[in-house]
């Protein structure tokens, strides 16, 4: 018999109704781990569906056990490093919409040390696990995977995964080993979750391009979806690192978006790549305490020099506001 999620729910609902009498507790996020084998609680989701309460796995075994009943169904994965904000939430909601009532949404919250090229950045990266669980629940996530580095990696791991073309430019040129770390962790998450779909934000445009290449070159049966950048009202792209900005730098940071928009207009009207990049560079460099890491104009797919101006281009920027490195980008075209 084909056990659908609805079947499981019905069975679980009956079982849990029997067991829940007298418990008096309202279903909600179950903080912590080791939920496998415990009774399944149900909740009414925003879209009206009666579903199991979001469940949390901290080990690979727990994750596999939670996923066992939904194998064969659509499984949509949203990998994150936590400190979730509205940008992450948009991905999670999109995952929920994609998976529908029958499918399963998995979010991973894992601050992956292997992708950090700077120990200080890792040490100061914000971590808000309780709030992250709440965000996941509000966005309709079914399973949150929250492993520790010790759970994820064997101490003597000796396999690395290197993309050798797209990752030689932009952030890849500035952050040695970063994308190898990203490919490794995403590959591991793909193996553990075995999703049908995964969603990544265009905020990390290069990451998305590299992961598309990984999926293509390694024949992974997973559909990747790119999600638009979510911004604050002042145009600053939401980022977990924004909370580390000084008030002055936070106030100044929307200059990134403004300069990218102005550059997009310049590019559309036929300005040279150099003139387009120089405009952004000048605007950012004028902010006290800002050091531009790069401003690059590249082909949006292969991320190298624009050779065909009829194709979509990407204007990407990275800049240090004090010790906080911010990235942003915009897809641009010529008015031909
Ligand atoms: P992170 O936790 O920074 O690794 O991000 C997890 C996912 O959320 C990545 O796919 C990011 O591209 C995406 N993301 C982060 N910030 C935003 C944003 N402002 N808008 C859309 N997606 C985002």
Please outline the helices and strands.
Elements: H1 5-20, E1 42-44, E2 50-52, E3 55-57, H2 60-67, E4 75-80, H3 86-99, E5 104-109, H4 119-123, H5 129-138, E6 143-145, H6 149-152, H7 170-174, H8 178-193, E7 197-201, H9 205-217, E8 223-227, H10 247-252, H11 255-268, H12 273-285, E9 290-299, E10 313-321, E11 324-332
Parallel strand pairs: 3-6, 4-5, 4-7, 5-6, 7-8
Antiparallel strand pairs: 1-2, 9-10, 10-11
The structure holds adenosine monophosphate.
Kindly list the characteristics that best describe this protein.
336 residues, alpha/beta, 3-stranded antiparallel sheet, 11 strands, 37% helix, globular, disordered N terminus, binds adenosine monophosphate
Walkthrough of the structure:
The chain is of the alpha/beta class and 336 residues long. It has helices spanning 5-20, 60-67, 86-99, 119-123, 129-138, 149-152, 170-174, 178-193, 205-217, 247-252, 255-268, 273-285; strands at 42-44, 50-52, 55-57, 75-80, 104-109, 143-145, 197-201, 223-227, 290-299, 313-321, 324-332. Strands 3-6-5-4-7-8 form a 6-stranded parallel β-sheet, sandwiched between helices. Helix 8 packs across helix 9. The longest helix has 16 residues, at 5-20. The chain is globular and about 60 Å long. Residues 1-38 have low confidence and may be disordered. Residues 80-81, 87-88, 90-91, 200-201, 203-204, 227, 229-230, 237-240 line the site of adenosine monophosphate. Adenosine monophosphate binds at residues 80-81, 87-88, 90-91, 200-201, 203-204, 227, 229-230, 237-240.
